[in-house]
Structures
1.
Amino acid sequence: MTFTTFTFVIFFLIFFSLYWSFKKSMKIQNLLILLGSLIFYGWWDYRFLILLFISSTIDYSVGLAIYRSTQKSVRSWLMAVCLVSNLGLLFYFKYYNFFIESFSGLIQSLGLNSDGMYIEVILPAGISFYTFQTLSYTLDIYKNKLKPTDNFIDFMGFICFFPQLVAGPIERASALLPQMQKPRQFNYTLAATGGRMVVYGFFKKLVIADPLSLRVDAIFLNPQQYSGLETFLGGMLFLIQLYLDFSAYSDIAKGTARMLGFELMKNFDTPLFATSVPEFWRRWHISLTTWFRDYLFLPLVKLRFDNTLWRISSTILLFVVIGIWHGANMTFIYFGFLMGLCFIPTLLAKNTPWLKEVIKYFNTNKVGKFIAMAFTFTLISEISVLFRAENMANALSIYKNIVYAKQFFQLDEYIHRLFPLVILFFVFEYVMRKKEYCLDIQSWPSWLRYTTYVALSLSILIYGYFDEAPFYYFQF
Amino acid sequence: MKKFLAKSTLVFIPILVVLTISLVLLIRVNEHLPLSIIIKQQQQSKTESYYNRELFENVLDIYKYNTMVHRKPEILAIGQSIVLCYRDFFFAPFQDQFYNTGLMIRNPKDLEVLTDELVNGKLRKPRYILFGLDHSFVLSNTPLDKKSIRTSLWQDPIYNSRKQLRALQSVLTKSDVRKVPEINVGFGKRGMNGNGYRKDGSCHNRWEIDMYSKDSTHIEGILIDDFKNHRNGYPMPMTFDTTKSKKVIVCLNTLRKNGIEILIYIPPLSDQYFNHISKFDYVQIFWKQFMAYQNELSALGFKVIPFATPSQMGLTDDYMLNSDHPGEILVAKQFLKFYQEDSIKGPISRKFNLAKLDALINQSNHPLSFELEPYQIQNQKK
């Protein structure tokens, strides 16, 4: 079930009423969360539920076993079982065919036929998200940072919690599980802010992101038909589309969770206004970057803490892995690699005073800050071409067209029409960037608040894009 | 909780008002009828009525399949849009048993599905099938290959909330959609304007007929552009697909073995268009193979109306609706000529009243249409 469908609206209205009618029984509420989440997820394909159940059961059992075990070797073996099974499932469904394709030459040189080794499987929605969520649970128990739950329903509720199951935020058990285990009372302020987030999310996705995606798709499908400038802007439009699309999902997830009395972590912090690539990654898909920071990067850096070269290599490796997390394609590997390279100036600055001063200037001076912001946005946009392209040939054709297109200065009418809306949105987000969330208009007069809600809702109804357009991150 | 619900309801009220207004407008322009009712009403109607929606997809495969089930025809026209000008009276005295399913079958895969259903008794078997075999049935990698016939009435976009919202948006944002149509027949605004699919399934091309009537100039349409840009039915490379061509033969043989008389119609292309594409070597190679396939079908004992351009028939491009769609007069002329010259007719075709069709062709005074348009008739009455 996708958030931006009539089906979900009906589903949530029923669920919301039912859920709060049992406000005195936390157990029933948790059971409802589990059932609702299974319906929500099974709506795509009921077979996905089997995989979700297997993955969750392994982590639930292994988590308890690790906690009860006192022997270090047993704990390590159990952790290995958990890692192999979770990552094995992920590998099988997401990376197996890519692996066969990448090593087809080697396989054929061994006298085997790689053609018959490909498998036909559908990628289960949200597998990368829930695999990482379950993994963090077991890893935290293994590191003695978390006490496991022995209540399977609470645990399943934490894993399957429908607002964030399919595309995050990837929640840590230490943050979400305790919320599952304590009674929840309806809180007007929390629900009202949640409602605002949902409306804003719907607006971002249906009124701006999806219409933008039409032009982005066309540019990436056939770059030769566009001018150099249009192709160049294609990267920027894609980054804006991706941000709007994904942050809209996170807003709706956070909003619906708040309406049910839960608080999810912040996943975006106006990243398009970042003044450097490292800052961008601190503000973009925060739940994923912090996951990798905690479970991969920091343990790796700790091995040779003071070595700059080691730090640079670890950073590049981190971003290559983040790239691969998104999908089995060379484009993601190059995307991650280039992002990792962009960290080098910041990492070198620690031991290079003049570089430190330059970076400081761009972070403190108003003009410098603006230049840095524009540069960072442009750089990330053009690297993101790799993220969007179907394959390397497609990405190269985009880059080639920016330089070699017959005409450079030409903009089609559709892009012209979209610009005012995009600029208006940027101005609004910039003004509201220091708020807890962008539509935090609690302090506005009530008549203005009401007018804003109605205007946003009517814009969605009249100008929203209602064709089939799933959230971009569903494919991961 | 009560405060939250009350305030939320307050926000929803203006939305509900807008939704209700647009829904009323949608019903007023007759767009809101589901296919199940349209099929019933159209088939029961004593006057001609055209099915053609403005805001919802026409879903012709569903519409035609279910009308076919309703009509139980003895004479069936199948194929893409190129067969849409075959009309019921061509097949007199079987005109009431005719149905034109043009655009229901889009590729050999669809043909297999239909063949299977006809042979296995899921559908009532007709006694005669006219099969429009255009080049896309034997061309590899056409976008049409990705299509699959849909048959369930529940797949009607009327029942799809996203499509409903899009239709409501059009009613709200496009003022011309809201105008009440001048002719009160048919279904949906475009149908009411005289475009669309008749009771017999054939297509009424009011727009093309009107355009020609203005200054007697033939319109080629966008196909030359499509060809240049390798769009739609013209991918690069143009390769003859033997798997597809064999599949077609297997289906036709199965139908023939089941006692169905078959006529294969290879549609014409306008001279202007055919001369243009023939300049390209890769088209020449493909077309040679396509023509060889046409001959192979004849050699296998199938009756085939062969490919020809209007000039090869002693006519002009004026008889074409556009580059690749023949008008009804041209189709009638080809059909009549074929059976006038065919010495060994089949059990059904030998009963066709060709004299009546001949007379109608002679009476016609427009290269694209047999009759006065309904709106012209209405103007005359006024």
2.
Amino acid sequence: MEESSLLTLVPSILSSAVVAAGLTALVTWRLGVKGNEREARKDENEAEDRLSARALEWIAQLQAEVNALKAEWRSVWDYKVSLEDHIDLLEDHIYKQKPPPPPQRPKPPTST
Amino acid sequence: MPDSSVPAWARHILRTARVAAGSFAVLVGVGDVVNASDVITRAAGPGFVAWWAWISIVSGAVAVVSVVLHRWRWELVASAILVVALSTRATAVWLTVDDGYRLAAAAGTSLAATLFFIRTVDLIVFGVKASAIPRARLRLRRRKVERDGGV
């Protein structure tokens, strides 16, 4: 390759960096990003902090919902087990031909 | 080297270094305008030498002023232009490496161009990150306008 063509090729290729820089500058200016670097970086940091805080809040909310669902599932499971025990008691009551009243049915959990 | 991730004292050092880098870019241009190397002029031609020299002077001065005034967009564009000017100069120096003891000079000019390139990429990344929230807001506003039928 000739020297002059190489000297033309290098700036031609690297001018894409200038185009990218110019586009970034133009787009950020149109979008209202501050021109002062200190203020722009401060804004960016604050935005990141706000997003992190919201994400943490959301995670805490989801965790609370999961805990509530687990507690509800636990009480339903306990009720199911008590119903199975109640059937055993009823069978025993019938088998022994005991008079009424039959053993009392367990109360369902209040939250369901 | 994103400024937001470093402490204040390091930011001051980085700014000082960037002012120094811009000043050296101006000096490169002044040197090539006032007393250009014969070897470089033979390799690239006086037109090319004058072209990158004046670009280095103007862009270097813009870079220094923008660093002092914290104007990151001006610094971004000036750094990108300096990458082109210094890389072209580095190419000319590399082309004359055969003449003798010019390897260090060629590598030094390439190093300067690379440092400005790092700053350019850093500022482009910063620009993309800083515009993420405004872009999201714009998208939401557009979606709202489409949903509400332009009301």
3.
Amino acid sequence: MLILTRKPDQRVVIRGDEPGSEIVITVCASERSGQVRLGITAPRRFRIFRGELLDEVRCSNREAVADPTVADLIAGLRLGPGAPTGAPGADPGKEKQS
Amino acid sequence: MRLKTVFDGEIEVPDSRIITFVSPLVGFDHLARFVIYQRDPGPLFWLQSVDDSAIAFCVVAPFTAGIDPEMTIDPDDAAAIRSPGEDDIDVYTLVVLDRDLDKVRTNLRAPILVGRQSNLATQVILDDPELPICYPLKAVLTAAEQG
């Protein structure tokens, strides 16, 4: 990991090879509590997240990998007769296996 | 194509049903192509990986399952899956199954958007902290079972 020491108002610039791939991180303030405020500008195609949220989603995604032993569980849930069928409009249920 | 699935053996799926993630499911960067199908009508579907037959997720379509979360689709996300907008987009959320029905839950914070015309998909992470990562599904599934 590259570690840089910066003061408030100083910036770090990350540049990719393609044109328009520049990310600028500005240290806005560091507070006595130990928190640091950062300002970030990046092209729209870059999504910016707090790392913990991304970690939470990653963890939740991993948990969602269906374990083959739950097949009977799903059968137990009977996939809900009487519930709306298919996805909104697309009705993927219709053309499953043939 | 013949598709190997975790839960239904080999099934025949028209190529037109394969969806491709333009930005991958977080933590599953190597898996781009999936098929969403269901065996029985109801709120739950399988999201089966085409690239790794051992990976399948259970997903729910929250808007047809009656969860109706308050989420809006960002035009940038619609554009990313080359979709004209909301009316063309199917929304699914990942379900964590559990033998204890009280623990079956879905992540409303990070929905999967699928463009119907483009067959492109993305998992978005919404800014709204009100959307629970662990939304309990018991009520929805129980209601579905009772019809």
4.
Amino acid sequence: MKRFFFLKYTAIISGLFSAVIILILTINYVQLKKVDPAQNMVVNKLIEKLEQNPSDQELKEQIRTIDLVSRKAFFTNRWQMKTGGYLLLFTCLVFLVSLKYYLADKKSISPPSSDRNENFWESRSKQKVWLISAPLLSLTLILVLIYISNKAYLQADLAAIPEAKEINPTDSTLVPTPADTATAIPNIQADSVIQKAIPDQKNIPVAEKKSFIPPTKKQIQKNWPSFRGPYSQGISYGTNFPIEWGNDKNLKWKVKLELPGFNSPIVWGNYLFVSGANKQSMKVYCYHALTGKLLWEKLIENIPGSPAIKPKVTEDTGLAAPGLASNGIHVFAIFATGDLVCLDFEGNQLWAKNLGVPANHYGHSSSLICWENLVLVQYDHSKSRTLFAFKAENGEIVWQANRGGLISWSSPIIVHDQNPPQILLNNDPNLAAYDLSNGKELWKLDCLSGEIGASPAYFGGIAIATNAYSKMTAVKLSAPVEMVWEGYDYLPDASSPVAWNNMVFTASSAGEVACFNLADGKELWLHEFDYGFYASPIVAERKVFFLDRMGTMHIVKASSSFELIAQPSINEKTDCTPAFANGCIYIKSKENLFCFSK
Amino acid sequence: MKNYRFFSLVKMIVLFALFSVSSLYSTGQQRFPHPEFETNYQFPEISSPQARLLLYSYLDVVVLLAMLVLMTWFVLKKRSRLAVFWLSLVAIAYFGFWKKGCVCSIGAIQNVSLGIADPAFIVPVTTLLLFLLPLVFALFFGRVFCSGVCFMGALQDLVIVKPQKLTPWLNTALGTIPYLYLGFTILFAATHTDFLICRFDPFIGFFRFSTNLSMYIFGAAILISGMFIARPYCRFICPYGVLLQWASWLSRWKIRITPAECINCHLCANSCPVDAIQIPNPEVKPEKAGPKKLLIHILTLPLIMLACGFLFSFLSKPLETLNPSVELSLKIESRQNTQNPEKDIYLDAFYASGTSKDDLKMESIRIQKQFDIGCWILGLFLGLALGIGFIKLSRVSKTNTYIPDQGKCVACARCYKYCPVDNPTLIKPDSKLTMK
């Protein structure tokens, strides 16, 4: 009997105690929500104030102090929750064990009710009533809940929405209207898209916004759609480029750049695009390619997942090193934050996404490239190496290839004349090719090592992969894919090689410029200049344009013997690869953007 | 008796250790951003967990199959409640804590439904097996899956303290919920609207150490009520239970209370915690108007189905507003007539995605049509269930012995120990019970 009472009262007391703890924990939970440091109004207001005066040390200290107190309160509350939880565990255990034993003592086998057959049919009738009533009650409850939660939309009639017309995938309506976008992108101020005076509107061929048809090979070759031009191969198909220039000669225009960026300019029609970024902001600029007037600039901000603090990058890489890319309708830019953005030719943001902040000790620098309706991103960083193919219209991932190897800083090139068309990428230790239609790895060759900055080169069925302190390898792309030759001299570092007409040209950061036979790797000539090269050599009109780091363009005849044609200079430091389009050469120095034409 | 005490003690300790510790860990998942100051401190890289290895998915199927085989042996052959209990603990540990409760056989209903409705959605073969294996076993051996292989059933089984009998009408009323839940689950999954079973899973938070407060409250409420109303989720919510019930009615080897012939000792009458034992009713006489009523119910079955289909067709509009695409489309529509509409992050995300409004509209209209058809099918299905319910309630199946209702019985093996054939010591010499 004593045992019976002991169990009974133990159960009651522990039960009550558990209830009290649950009550306290609930109150604590509510408080915990209130003291969330991220929602601290005082701190948030002070941070806003700090944004107006970022150098106010006193204010910073004040924020730190309040923030610390807030965090301490939060963690104290957490500790209380944890301790209370353990106590609850113990009391619940006591309650249940005592209750179980108490009830077990009382347990006995009871006979069935003697009146079990009485009112059998009455009971069945009652069950039938409930068989109907219960689902009706449940449904009513569900409907009430739906009505409460979706009241506003229940009143709207979807059927009343005009029937959506047959969607043409290239229809302009795929693009949200500027008004939509303005409301969509949070906190975009009206002036973030600055419509500067647009010169000669009549002369500007309006980008074919109405329908998106992937550009033809001819259109691509006519323009300079990405870093190192068409298909990123470093070959220009344009004509009538100047070979002499200076402040008073062939200078069509020159503009001062607002934000720093090591990306190279790209050109489509009369639109020239560059990007720039510093710790405060990231922008894409569009200039009129013939007049140099700023058509618009777009502040890139409020991209979900974009880091509040810009990642640490080295000074010689910066936050805007990757080159932009365009398909004639859209322009794409990527920054060291991992923010990938798609704009139209009027500066409207069509979509944007953060690919995850790249773990990159110098800063992300692989340039973008377009193929048909895709924009391709070589996203090699310490944690993973991925090649993304996003749908140009909406940023949806069409395919992605998870690659092996190590981090790289080189950019992809496209080999369009092979079957299937493929994209080539360099990284340690491979030169690898992927099918552009599905991202399937076609082949790879272990031929690189170290920190890969140089991009591959391609001409006439042979691809070249090289890197400083490694080697240069030529690979035949027709089946069977195999190494043709290897070379070990005059290897480029940041600059990429260019292959053209059975020759390969390289420019090293030590100032060595060399030409090799594409077929067997034999050195054809070598010339040493005073300054090194970061910009990649470009072949145009049977000439090779080598732009050194001091701003001098060494124009050499593209032949098996060295023949210097001219050495015009802008007399400004430059590391960006020039763009060749519209009969103009566009050179971007650290501070200015130049356009030279005859 | 000693065994029983030890058994209870282990049960309680295991259960509440799991329950309470998981609640504590859940609070540890709260995060807030780092302070926005530039310091030399290097924040650790944020990494995403790797996808679960495919090998584990196959392992899940193998474990499920092994446990079903074992449970069948324990329930039908060995007739051991203790063995069922220990296997339940293994199920909780493996399917609950190790596998984090996903994908489970119950939730697989949704994957299968979506796979049938949308050919683009491929149901993994392992998920399909998780869905089918318990049903196949139920078809042969009854609901052995529910007895303890299902970690949700096992968890509820552990908390049973003093199960109370529910009145028949309440049992019937609550028993309609799983049918509704099953219907809505299939409809919502097939229309890409929601995975209801996952969203309203009351126990998953305990196993994953993380869920929202309302689900903790829901889970705790079910477990607390489960102390007195055995297995409330299994009996009155679980949509998979409906399918298992149908399969069990057809089971080849049925669960029996007694290993031999029932001697009608009545000892097991109140032993079933889930009210699944059918009491002998030799005295019950058929209703006078019984055959007529039965005939009416059979003849009106198609009419009931059509009426329910018609009634449910009106649910199409309110239900489709729960679909994210339709909701977004309606939101855009309603905002066009609103001056200075409030900011909406969903719309922001939509516009930022670059998808056109026409695309969204077309998608919404497609979903609307799916709901129109789906609601009719849902109504017909519930009408059929309702009609069959009426027919069952209009006839009396006479039984002279105590037998489990194969549909309701969850094979927990509790009734075995009440059978004097199994346990002759139960009949005391001075027992007042008469043995027929």
